[in-house]
Design a protein that fits this description.
Number of helices of chain A: 4
CATH class of chain A: Alpha Beta
Number of strands of chain C: 0
Number of strands of chain A: 5
Largest sheet of chain A: 3 strands, antiparallel
Radius of gyration of chain A: 16 Å
Strand content of chain C: under 5%
Structural class of chain A: alpha+beta
Shape of chain C: elongated
Order of helices and strands of chain C: HHHHHHH
Number of domains of chain C: 2
Number of domains of chain A: 1
Shape of chain A: globular
Distance between the termini of chain C: 43 Å
Largest sheet of chain C: none
Radius of gyration of chain C: 24 Å
Chains: A alpha+beta, B alpha+beta, C mainly alpha
Oligomer: heterotrimer
CATH architecture of chain A: Alpha-Beta Complex
Strand content of chain A: 25-35%
Structural class of chain C: mainly alpha
Number of helices of chain C: 7
CATH topology of chain A: Sufe protein. Chain: A
Chain lengths: ~140, ~600, ~230
Amino acid sequence: MAYSDKVIDHYKNPRNVGSFSKSEQGVGTGIVGAPECGDVMKLQIKVNEKTEVIEEARFKTFGCGSAIASSSLITEWVKGKSIEEALAIKNTEIVSELSLPPVKIHCSVLAEDAIKAAIADYKKKTDQAGNETHGHHRDQ
Amino acid sequence: MSHIVGIDLGTTNSLVAYMDGRIPRVIVGPDGSKLVPSVISFEDGRPVIGERAKARRITRVKSTVYSVKRFMGKGIEDLSSDLAYLPFHISGNEQEIVRIKVAERDYTPPELSAMILRELKTRAEIFFGETVTKAVITVPAYFNDAQRQATKDAGKLAGLEVLRIVNEPTAACLAYGLQQRHDGIVAVYDLGGGTFDISILKLKDGIFEVLSTSGDTMLGGDDLDYGLMELILNEVEATGGQGLRSRAEVLERVRTAAEEAKVALSEAEETEIVIEGEGLGSDLDYRRLLTRAEFEALVGDLVQKTVRPCLQALEDARLTPEEIDEVLLVGCSTRVPMVRRTVAETFGREPHGELNPEEVVALGAAIQADILAGNNQELLLLDITPLSLGIETMGGVVSTLIPRNTTIPTRATEAFTTFLDGQVNVEIHVLQGERELARDCRSLARFTLRGIAPQPAGVPRIEVTFHIDANGILDVTARDQRSGKAQTIEVAPSYGLTEDEVERMLKDSIEHAEADLSTRLLIETRSEADTILNATARALATDEVEIPAEERSAIEEAVSRLEEAKAGLDHRRLRDEIERLNAATRPLAERIMDAALQAALKDRPFSEILDS
Amino acid sequence: MATIETNKHTDHLCWSCYQPTGGKPFCPDCATILPVPPQSNYFSILGLDAKRMSLEPERLEEAFYALSRQVHPDHYQSRSPKERQIAEERAAVVNVAYRTLRDPIARTEYLLELETSSPQEHRDQPPAELLSQLIEIEEIVEAYRGSAGAERGALKDFLKEVHRSLEARREATETELHEAFELWDRLVAEEGSEEAKASLLKRLRELLHHRSYLTTTIRDLSAALAGEPRPGS
């Protein structure tokens, strides 16, 4: 079960921990929190502005750290996806027999919220950039 | 109503107490002592417990075991500090109950503790002249769930229904409160043979509310001994002693010497340690003068280790040292002057010194037994759980459901969800401890909730409920709200015995049945012995018949042998001695009967005598 | 309102003598201990006014001790298993109720739980500005952990100052919380409008959230300044 192995691996060795410079071209930053345990998460995506494909993603969490495994998995998952695909994070129909520890309810949504916030930030930034260049339309 | 006894099952000594009306008292054994050394030695396959076993520590190293409390609820990986200094052979895999080899057989710690409990039970039964089946047993407040369960199992194996597991410092405070009867905040500093506890309580109108507790279940008088043993061993090695540490007899002699020196230094400023060369397998005796200052330099760090838990307990109770009205000292190791000094410095006051630190816990247990028996509605103990309890969540982080210092009984429920889409199984890993990561906490149990309705990740609601009863013992339920699938376990800890094992041990233990029977026999035989001893005393005092000196001395010897046998616990020997005294007094008894008959005949008509 | 309804279900008849109980801990007829009614809340269990937020610790303790004397399982050891079980459960609820209500933060969380039908409905906008500030501080903390020499000294002084100011902000939320309690009690007493209540509840929730985020960063900061590893790592 490759899927399971991958999950376990993210659980043990979280990937994509870190950050990009906010001012960098094509970077969208999402900052979200889970007040239940005071978790704060920053998730960033780096988007190819021509293709609107997410090329890289990075995250950092502060607080109880329970969201790390799911953040690692989701940042891996969004790489190579278009921002539209990433927004429509959909549930695959895999029935998993894997017995894993449970997740705090608020942690389960944190990474997803963060992706959405990062994409919103990216769009806001590119729109502003568009406005600043006097309504220059990007190539499709 | 049958008696409920209070038992202090200690690392070094154990005691059993009862309520004499409104006053708690420790039961004095047939040997005249209140303390039963927690030592077990096997003699012809039968366990002997207490002083007699203690005397065999050096002569019968391989058949004798002690400090069993330190192994309760532990895995082999927890015991590294002890293994170097204890002469036992201990086996067990990781995450498994340890086994201690004594007299060529493996025993689990609860089985060995049960032997001590049985001895105490017998003492109480002899004292009351009836069977005792219910008890309150004390444990260190900082004992975790596994250690508490192990203690409960030991009680069961000893044929006792354990009505309540009570924390030692709390019990001590009950005894203090009963005696002093004034309200206020009390800190109980309990440094025993193997464990350290600090508890802070609020006393108000008969309510004893435990505010906080902290401690270390691997810190006690034994550790002070280890420090001193290390010094002695190093010095013997420096003078050419070889391979000492692997020889059980040597370790045992060194240990005894260390212990004696420690005790002596509580009174004296210096003491001489002498170990004969024979005991060390050497031509030279080991001889050394040890001053109190040297001893304190050796064990200072250990004593200092008790300070941090004290500060933690104060912080958790949101109190400053100035707000503490009284500090109680409990446990044999508080006799060490440096310990007393450290307590005084930490709390900024001299500790209360009027209690007998070795008896007060057992007395408190007896009071709690009395409360449970319904005889005391005035006092009420509100105890707490010493350690936080939670489950592991994805990422290896512990999610706490019940924080430490929560008043028990208590209950907590929290909803969790799945990590994967369509995940149908969730693993519930129950943990106890204060660290954030699961791997740093004590694993209590693991089980899998299966059959969760498959749904996208994050959608299922899995309710986890923890319930801690008044004994501080936990059960956990996990339930999928959608499918209604639920699973409950009374946490059978990773290091404990399963219920089946306990049952099997009970069944297997023919000794157990025999012990119960022999207790009953002992009680009956003792009362028979009393009857014959009384009759003999009367007969010897008579002036109606002559008793030749030879006969008198034979009878007197039989009397003293019987009295000696009566002080012991062997009903067979007692029976033999009764027979011996019977035989010795038979001619005398016959002569007395004759004399009485003749006297009766002299004064009365024959017919009257025939009629009577 | 989550209060006790009487005589509606069999739950409110005594399990022993089948007389109505009126939601009391003991049957008024036969004095048997009764299970906690499903509709009760921590305020009613401790015999306090419904949802009163300004509470005197002494009064709370008195109520807790008095109830404990009545329901603690120690006093039910020689009763029937059913009574013993009810006492265990009741004592557990009394303990949890006391623990919850004596702590202002837990008390507020509990009020919000009672007043909010589902927490999901009230997923507030995260306080973006605060979170950004805290992330920035956390990143400086990371830099401090990896720093050396003169830079380390300067960062340390700076972080100490940050620590002080965050502590002050957290204390301020607590003061505000107590002010909000008084407002709330007045609103309940004077039967204020639902809108006013809803807006005050929202304020309470925000205060709790801010406090919770501040606590995370204060904890990370304290650990770094004390030279300890980041909590949880």
